């Protein structure tokens, strides 16, 4: 296990490490609960399971009240829509229509339906509770992260928002001098290949085997986000793909390049600014009514 280079006394970073660790636990619990919910719902009402995204609030509210085709047919489309509206569900009419159409396609009661329906009800409530806990801890993370002196620098980097930025601090401590060079930071984050030289053979590289997986996830995920919203990142990614690299290889190459940029920003204490070409492209998009208001 690789130890994080935290310095004693950095209370903000220590708190962020605790909070982001707790958030990861909650998200993992939520994923497991959602998977169990889907499995139970598939057992009694497969058509509804295929039609709903049970990670969203509306479908979860729906499943706390009704779980079987017969139950949906008994209440009817209009009454179901009213029931959903009373619980502040967004697009209640569309959700009611989706559920009722699925119920109309299944007129068979499957074994264990009654007990499984109770399990679906319970699991839906558990997912909603976990969603609430994640939302609450996200607020705590943001409040604590904003107190750190690197907040503006880190969040200015395309793709690094509140949560990923906080996880970056939690994994690194925020002190780049602890690593010495951006190459060491990239190696610690698993986005730089490790040398595999032997005897007379040199220059061979391999995937690193020892690295901080949380930091690698931060680098990789933020690189993915930046491809969507940053012209410079998109051009770099497209160039690597044109060179024959696979998607994952191109994203990792971008992540490695972004480590150098982030390192320099933190070293100099300045915020990220797009290159002149990217700024010009952004200005053209802002002037173009077809792109007005879209993220760059």
From TrEMBL:
Source superkingdom: Bacteria
Q: Name one GO biological process term.
A: DNA transposition
Q: Which GO terms describe its molecular function?
A: DNA binding; transposase activity
Domain Transposase IS116/IS110/IS902 C-terminal span(s) in chain numbering: 153-237
InterPro entries per the record?
Answer: Transp_IS110-like_N, Transpos_IS110, Transposase_20
Transposase IS110-like N-terminal domain ranges (all copies): 4-46
- Entry-linked NCBIfam families: transpos_IS110
Q: What is this protein called?
A: Transposase
From which source organism is this entry?
Answer: Streptomyces stelliscabiei
Q: What is the lineage of its organism?
A: Bacteria, Bacillati, Actinomycetota, Actinomycetes, Kitasatosporales
């Amino acid at each position: 296990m690789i130890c994080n280079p935290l310095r004693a006394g950095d209370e903000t970073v220590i708190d962020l490490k605790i909070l982001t660790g707790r958030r990861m636990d909650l998200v993992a619990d939520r994923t497991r609960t959602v998977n169990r919910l889907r499995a139970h719902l598939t057992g009694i009402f497969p058509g509804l399971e295929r039609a709903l995204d049970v990670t969203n609030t509306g479908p979860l509210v729906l499943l706390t009240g009704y779980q079987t085709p017969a139950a949906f047919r008994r209440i009817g489309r209009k009454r179901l829509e009213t029931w959903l509206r009373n619980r502040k569900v967004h697009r209640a009419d569309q959700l009611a229509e989706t559920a009722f159409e699925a119920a109309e396609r299944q007129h068979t009661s499957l074994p264990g339906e009654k007990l499984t329906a109770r399990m679906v009800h319970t699991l839906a409530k558990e997912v909603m509770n976990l969603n609430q806990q994640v939302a609450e801890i996200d607020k705590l993370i943001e409040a604590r992260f904003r107190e750190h002196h690197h907040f503006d620098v880190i969040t200015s980097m395309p793709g690094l928002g509140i949560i990923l930025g906080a996880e970056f601090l939690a994994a690194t401590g925020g002190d780049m001098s602890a690593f010495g060079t951006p190459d060491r930071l990239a190696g610690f984050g698993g986005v730089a290949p490790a040398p595999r030289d032997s005897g007379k053979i040199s220059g061979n590289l391999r995937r690193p085997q020892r690295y901080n997986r949380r930091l690698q996830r931060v680098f990789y995920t933020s690189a993915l986000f930046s491809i969507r919203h940053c012209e410079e990142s998109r051009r770099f990614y497209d160039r690597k793909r044109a060179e024959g690299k696979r998607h994952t290889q191109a994203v990792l190459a971008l992540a490695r390049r972004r480590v150098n940029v982030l390192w320099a920003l933190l070293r100099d204490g300045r915020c990220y600014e797009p290159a002149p070409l990217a700024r010009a492209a952004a200005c053209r998009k802002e002037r173009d009514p077809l792109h007005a208001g879209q993220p760059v």
